[in-house]
Structures are given as structure tokens and as C-alpha cells.
Amino acid sequence: MSEVDVHGPIDFLLIQFPGDKPTDAAAAALLDLVDRGIVRLYDILAIRKDADGTFSGIELDAAGDLGGFVAFAGARSGLLGDDDLRQAGDAMDPGTMAVLLVYENAWAIPFVAGALDGGGQMIASQRIPAQDVMDALDALDAED
Fold first, then answer.
1. Could you state, in chain order, the average pLDDT of each consecutive group of 10 residues for the chain (144 residues)?
2. What is the distance between the alpha carbons of residues 96 and 89, in angstroms, rounded to a whole number?
3. pLDDT of residue 129
4. Letter string b/e over residues 86-113, b meaning 16 or more CB atoms within 10 A of that residue's CB
5. What is the DSSP string of the chain?
6. What is residue 65's predicted lDDT score, i.e. its pLDDT?
7. What angle do CA 89, 56, 128 make, to 5 degrees?
8. In this predicted structure, what is the pLDDT of residue 32?
9. Of 102, 76, 78, nearest to 15 (Cα)?
10. Contacts of 67 (CB under 8 A, 6+ apart)
């Protein structure tokens, strides 16, 4: 099977920022991952949630508070819609801004292609939150 016909795992990520904090470091790190081909960005949606709890999607070129994320203006595949905006807005704290990303783990494409060529098939997959892993490792360290 050709790597052209294969995709890596596709994930979404909602990152919330306090309304007054710069986001340039996060945007630069994402741009680096995209530039190096580690991830492929399908969609990015910027969201603002006001103190009264109302929220709205905002254009990245108009989101001065989201700094470097402006570089991703126009990254839209159509995978994100109004329901996604609503769910993200419901999850956010009042007085914050967020970016909702849909991205492919492009680093995995050669592995997935090799597994499929060998007759392998995905039978289970689950994301383990990083904090859960860190907590488990801390607990193991405490036992030593």
C-alpha cells in the first residue's frame, strides 16, 4: 500500500488561553511541527468566550490576541462545524480565547503503511491524557 493512500491518526485539540496572555510561543511551536511534517493541520478555529458566557468563532486575521496563530488563517478542510464550535464554547471558561485544531499525526504514516502492508489492522486506539501519564510516573518514582 502506498503512503499516499494512508493516513496517520487524526486528533483534535482545544487549547484555552487567558484573554490577556500572549500565544506566540504556542503558535510558533505548531508552525514548527507543521513545517517539519510531523503534523498536518486540517482545521483551526479560533473562539472567544466573553465574561457573560457568550461565545463566538473569530477570524484569525482579526484575532490580534491570538498572535502567531494568524499564520494559520485559511486552514480549513470543512471538518469543523457549528456543533464543534458549540461544544468548544461550552467547555471554555468565561473571559478566554481558544483554538480548536484538527490535525493528522503525519509522523505515523510510514509506520501505518508498513503495518498495513504486513497485513496488520487497527483493532484498538485510545489517547491517554499526558497528565495521567505524568501522575502515574510520579507515583512510580515515589515508590522507589
1. 75 89 88 96 93 90 71 89 95 95 94 92 85 94 89
2. 10
3. 86
4. eebbeebeeebbbbbbbbbbbeebeebb
5. --GGG----EEEEEEEEETTS--HHHHHHHHHHHHTTS-EEEEEEEEEE-TTS-EEEE-GGG-GGGGGGGGGTT---S---HHHHHHHHHHSPTTEEEEEEEEE-GGGHHHHHHHHHTT-------PPPHHHHHHHHHHHHHH-
6. 64
7. 30
8. 96
9. 102
10. 22, 23, 24, 27
For residues 131, 134, 140 and 142, what is the CA-based torsion angle, rounded to 10 degrees? -100
**Pair 103, 40: CB distance under 8 Å:** yes
Which sign, positive or negative, has the C-alpha torsion 65, 71, 74, 76?
Answer: negative
What would the grid cell of residue 75 be? 486552514
Note the maximum CA span of the chain: 55
The CA distance from 10 to 130, in Å, is 17
Cell of 115: 503495518
pTM for this predicted structure: 0.82
